[in-house]
Each structure stands twice: as C-alpha cells, then as structure tokens.
Amino acid sequence: MISPTPNMIAEKVGPVGRLVFNKPAKRNATSTDMWEAIPVIIDAFEKDPEVRVVVVTGAGDQAFVSGADISEFEKARSTPEQVAYYDKIGEVANARLAKCSKPTIARIRGYCVGGGVGVALTCDIRIASDNCKFAVPAARLGLGYRAAGLKTLMDLVGPSNAKEIFFTARMFSAQEAQGMGLVNRVVADAELDAYVDDYCRRIAENAPLTMHAAKRVVEELTRLDGKPDFHRTSALVKECFDSEDYIEGRRAFMEKRKPVFKGR
Length: 264
Description:
With about 260 residues, the chain is α/β, with parallel strands linked by helices. It folds into 2 domains: about 10-205, 2-enoyl-CoA Hydratase, Chain A, domain 1, CATH 3.90.226.10; about 205-255. Helices cover about 50% and strands about 15% of the residues. The longest helix is centred in the middle third of the chain and has 20 residues, at about 80-100.
C-alpha cells in the first residue's frame, strides 16, 4: 500500500493492515503529515475486504509514539490559524482511528507518551511489551485536554486513576498501566510480535459483522452525551442474524469444522 508520507507506513500482511508511525530517530513523534495520512490509510484498509484487523504501532524499538514533534512547532504552530489546523487534523485522525469499522490493536513497545497515549486509546485492544513507559505530561506543559479525550481515558481506568495520570504527569510502567486498565495485556518484549500475530490470527478467523456490531454497540453505550441510539444497536444485531456468515457459523458448528466467514 502507498502512504501519503514516508513518516507513516501502510502495509498489508495477509488479513492484517499495519499502520506504522515511522519516525524512529525522533521516537515516532507526530507531525502534520503523519496526522494527515492516518485517515487516508484507514480509508484504504476499510475498503479492502481482505483486511480483517488493523495493527497500529511505531517503528523501531524505542517508542510507540512519544508525543508531538516539537521541532516543527515554529513553522507549523506559530500562528493561531496554524494551531487551529494542527489541532483539527489531530482530532480528525484520532476520530478516524476510533471509528474504524474493523478491530484495531495498538502494539506498544517503548515510550507511549502524550499524544501516543491518545492514539493507543483510539484502538480497541492495547498490547504492550513489559518495558513500556506511559505518561501524559500535559500538566508540565500547561495544556488542557478536551472532555471527549478525558472520558475515553476515564472509561478505561476510572476517575481516580485518570486524575493520578494527569495530576502527577509521571511515567507509569507497563505493569502499572495494566493494573489500572490502560492496557489489555503485557508480555515479554521478545514475545510481543508473536503475541500480537496470534491475536490477529484469532480475530481474522471470526465473523466481521459480529465484531463490527460489538464495536459499534460499545460505542453507543459509552457516548459522551449518555444517549445511546438503541435503534442503531438493534439494526446492527439484526444485520448479523440476517447474514450469510450466521448461516455459515451454524453449519460449521454442526459439521464440527472451522467456519469460513465472508463478512456478508
């Protein structure tokens, strides 16, 4: 696959689409071109029926994403208009990741800081190596976080842990992050790739419509306004029961074989 910028890699490996933050010399710090590329890459993955799961990760061994690339701020964020544009494309990119119709996994190695935590939170599952370090240093920079971003964090870790993360602005270990619910799994660094590959294989074998429905129902139940669209959730469930995959799933169960789902 072709990415709009060399600072983001888009590739397909079997049923897995890989979106890679590719600036290892700067610990994958994000820049304008990277944010702009994310919706383009996710659109391509969604349109490809062979892609069943998307892995979001960082190049190299030092970091997942270490926050924003401060070195470009003089040129890219020196006027109110530039700041507004930068904030907007970051918001659009994260929203596009969060709205991806296919399951997403954040494969986290090394530092996951600031905006990197935000990117990880857009993913459905977070799998981290045991040497990871997490931090949201907003209080050291005087930054404010929007309610939507804080709610996503709070839904995962709870109000008290969310406050601790922001109030202290300190680094948390992978084990601490797992203890508070920030990540799903922590594995030995040497086992990270194999573990993520196994998760991708398991997900790719399952019914796409069922996973899509579950993802969207959770989305409705955690809406910021607290008003789930139950008509939408019912329609998603009905789509599963009306699908060819539901027929295939029943037949495979009765025939004691693995189902072959088509996503329709």
